[in-house]
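Field notebook, page 443. I keep forgetting to write these up properly, so this time I am using the form the group agreed on. The chain and the ligand, protoporphyrin IX containing FE, are recorded exactly as supplied. Prediction of the bound pose follows.
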Amino acid sequence: MSQSSHTLSAEPVQYTLFTRVFGGIDSPELKKKLESSLKDLVAPIERIFLNDAAATAAIERACVPQKAASFVSFSSDPVHMKRWELSADIRVIKPNLPGRPGIVEANLQSLTRDFGACVAIPLLYGSDFLNRYPELLDDFWKFDNNLFPLLMIGIPPWAPLKMVKEGRAARARILGEMEALYRRIDQYQRGVPVDFCADMSDVSSAPFERNKVYEREGWSFAERGTGDFAILWGQNANTHPVLFWFLAYVYSTPSLLDRLREEIAPDVHLSEASLPEITSMDLPALSMNCQLLKACIFETYRMVNEPTSIRYVARPITIDDGEFKHELKPSMFVSAPHALINQDPTVFAHPEEFDPDRFLEIDPDSGKLMARYGRLRPWGTGVSMCKGRTFAEKEIVSLGAAIICLWDIAPASGTWELPDMIPGTGVKSPVKDIRVVITRRSL
Ligand code: HEM
């Protein structure tokens, strides 16, 4: 997998995904356009999502402390709820009144993944896109949960299944909105009036740079929308389910929450009030100092991520594998399911246990504990390794730390019981959501 892309190429796999799953209409012209654009289309994503300083700056723009303070709003009226609360089946047990802190019940997976998406999507496409399309989050998860896995395993798109039909309808709505977004991006870039006078001022540089490449290579607006749907999916489909599992493990593992709160405290300052607010959050310091927090994220990857690198063999190559030799011939496909070792007891002792300390090692130079990936490969490998990994990890660090600092989360049933998991599109899905009780942390 560490071979150059001239030998092991991800491009044919990406084209198949693009046409089979994301809705691109297969044609020799489209294939040629994708081949001549792909490298230049990925570069603007790398500049924001892979570069450390840019990813930090993007997350700092997201006002995470303020948003996390409204993780739940204690409102039962959808008009006053935050967008991320709408699909979480919120039930206000006790309203939030002065001197009497509120209590709500909610579905943790829905709440967390929509919270993450509401933070991340505007950083890429601006707030107007999210505000203009109220069903975006529901459509996104319907596509991701229902349609994506079925199309990946080769179920034809015309299959008379409810999940396929609903998933395709959701995908069609997303593609329509992405196409309309690209028309607005193009108008704004050309300096002509923008449809609906939409505010484009907070759209990131990535879609504008990508639009120039799309324009150069003659992509239609519908094709541009499809091309960016793949990026919207990459940005949201894994990060926010990971955030959900991370919170589920942290809150359900005895004594871990207290250890994390202690570790985070120097880098996330809280007000003196009995129900504290975050007054400042030092994201670079959190990433550097909070090694237990990082180890918890790594252990969450180990428990729930299912990364696979699939490559097309473009040039013959022989791989030495101990006593074996593998002859890979051109036009073969190779697949590396990196998660196979994650549950192997010879690699990770007691793999069924959530044990973040397994990723902490003493750094020989500083003598301090450092979180190290070891044999974990959550981002795939080689040249086509994830281009959003820096951003994704910082996002989980900042959102995770903010929620941990501000909220107490307990199981509604009284006892933590994590649901069974089924395969997802990159991160395992729970067979059912976790019903939780959420209250503001009191100091
Ligand atoms: C926890 C969150 C995430 C996980 C677990 C994850 C995982 C992966 C994996 C396993 C791959 C395939 C690598 C391979 O083929 O070897 C990949 C590719 C990719 N990811 Fe991510 N990803 C995450 C977040 C993101 C984010 C936030 C973005 C930002 C847009 C992103 C953008 C991409 C892109 C563009 C590729 C294709 C890279 C290429 O072919 O050159 N990902 N990701």
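OBSERVATIONS:
- The chain has one domain: 8-440.
- DSSP finds 15 helices and 15 strands in the chain.
FOLLOW-UP: compare against the apo run.
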